[in-house]
Amino acid sequence: MDLAFWWLLIITVVFMLGWAAARYNLRYLRSKSENLLSSCFKGLNFLLNKKPDQTIDTFIEAVKLHPEITELHFALGNLFRQRGAIDCAIQMHQNLLLRADLRPNERHHTLYELGQDFLKAGLLDRAEEAFQRLYGSEYALSALQALLTIFEIEKEWHKAIVVAQQIEAMGILPLRKEISQFYCELTQEALQYKKIDNARIALKQALCSNPKNIRVTLLSGDIEIACNKPVQAINYWRQIEQQNPAYLLLVAHKLMQAYTAIGQSQKGVALLAHYVEAYYSSDLLDVAYQHIAELSGIDSAHALIRVKMQQSPNLVAMQRLLEAQIMIAEEPYKSELELMRTLIRRHAKNMPRYMCQNCSFQAKLFYWRCPSCGGWETYIPQRIEPIN
Ligand SMILES: [Zn+2]
């Protein structure tokens, strides 16, 4: 939970204590609550002024003064975690767990915080153990969500499916999309080990979980290729045009390879040219350019690039245009063009290509699961480019 939230919670509790002390004339309690309130405001002030070290000191002081208020421990632990002092957070929560006077809900909360400490420290087995002890408690849903994150990190897809189904059974969060992706991961794993039957079984489950999952269509084609059936693979991959043409980029090159395998590369090139025309993207153009240059010659590829550059200038097409011009240019222009191409290539190489729609994390590779926020299907395979 957010640290500011903790402060507000603690301040509310202390206010109530102070009010009760004043109302019933409890002088000792009144004095203690006034001291604590003063510490809390001091800590909040440091927090708002972004002085984390002083905030920690104030918290430690407050915890020493009032060890019985568990919220103070949780707030301090949260701050330790945020500052990277995971060892301190772990030790504090472990000590808290040893206390005999903890109420069951406080014990569960402490265990949950300890699990978060282990997760942040990368001690996944210990985090898993802590969260598993929370089954059936008021922290069950949060613990299951944390377990799901752990299994995703560990790529334990079978376990992730079980946990996601448990969360769904609680009727709060729909996770069909995620479960479908977990089955896709299992399909991919099975394909890597050439276990075709297992791949088909997992993919069928992925389709059942989410019939709109485009990755299922992609993987269906991959399975057919693994079975040496390029015609069937082409049939699957061509369906992507109807599902969502933005994803054609992910199969454009594979489609060409499949058409080449059945001796119909010209048909493949014509299909790619159609995709470029109907669903233009600089990366699709890039794939089409390579195959057109190889099969129909540099003049045809050059003509295509020249037209597209005039319609929608971008760095990828610019590189290809320069390449085509280098082929026909003579010195000294050839060297100058080569220099320009090198500079553009260097610049383009360092540019991120895709952006997560959830957290805006930018990456050079396309991911089904965002490496930053962990969201599934948050990337669209479309290049982000300043010049467009
Ligand atoms: Zn993200």
TrEMBL record:
Domain of life assignment: Bacteria
UniProt entry keywords in alphabetical sequence: Cell inner membrane, Cell membrane, Iron, Membrane, Metal-binding, Repeat, TPR repeat, Transmembrane, Transmembrane helix
Positions annotated to bind Fe cation: 356, 359, 370, 373
GO molecular function: iron ion binding
Gene that specifies this protein: lapB
GO cellular component terms, semicolon-separated: cytoplasmic side of plasma membrane
One GO term (biological process): lipopolysaccharide metabolic process
Residue intervals annotated with topology Cytoplasmic: 23-388
Official protein name in the record: Lipopolysaccharide assembly protein B
Topological relation to the membrane, as annotated: Single-pass membrane protein
Job of this protein: Modulates cellular lipopolysaccharide (LPS) levels by regulating LpxC, which is involved in lipid A biosynthesis. May act by modulating the proteolytic activity of FtsH towards LpxC. May also coordinate assembly of proteins involved in LPS synthesis at the plasma membrane.
Spans through the membrane: 6-26
Keyword Metal-binding assigned: yes
Sequence similarity: Belongs to the LapB family.
A matching Pfam family: Zn_ribbon_LapB
Subcellular location: Cell inner membrane
NCBIfam families associated with the record: PRK11788.1-3 (NF008755)
Domain LapB rubredoxin metal binding intervals: 354-378
